[in-house]
Design a protein that fits this description.
By secondary structure, the protein is an all-alpha fold. It contains three helices and no strands. This is Bacterial SH3 protein.
């Protein structure tokens, strides 16, 4: 069924570490709680969006970079979505296959399980 994702496959619970810390990949500076709606843009020191671990930031498809005509890049939808997935799940989505264009993510999600 397209357009449906069962809670059996997707969990928004952050993984627990051995010491009980469930926020090991967090920058520690975000006020976004699990599953809450983000009403502001991410801060420039938020590693989910502004670090080389976000592959779209790494290749300069995000703020604060400029495009070929010198205009500031406001943000790429895949840059934001990649960061938001990481922010909400506590896991960098390396293995999910979310690397290309957004329209490719549905099939990547199916392939990754």
């Amino acid at each position: 069924k397209t357009g449906y994702a069962s809670s059996k496959w997707i969990s928004f619970d952050k993984p627990q570490t051995e010491n009980g810390n469930n926020n090991e990949n967090s920058s520690g500076n975000t006020n976004i709680s699990l599953g809450s709606i983000r009403t502001t843009g991410p801060e420039k020191n938020n590693i989910h969006y502004y670090s080389d671990d976000n592959i779209f930031y790494k290749v300069k498809l995000s703020p604060p970079f400029t495009n070929s005509s010198g205009k500031p890049i406001v943000g790429n939808c895949t840059w934001y979505a990649y960061g938001r997935i990481w922010e909400m799940t506590g896991r960098i989505p390396y293995d999910a296959g979310f690397t290309g264009n957004g329209y490719e993510w549905w099939n990547a999600n199916i392939r990754s399980g």
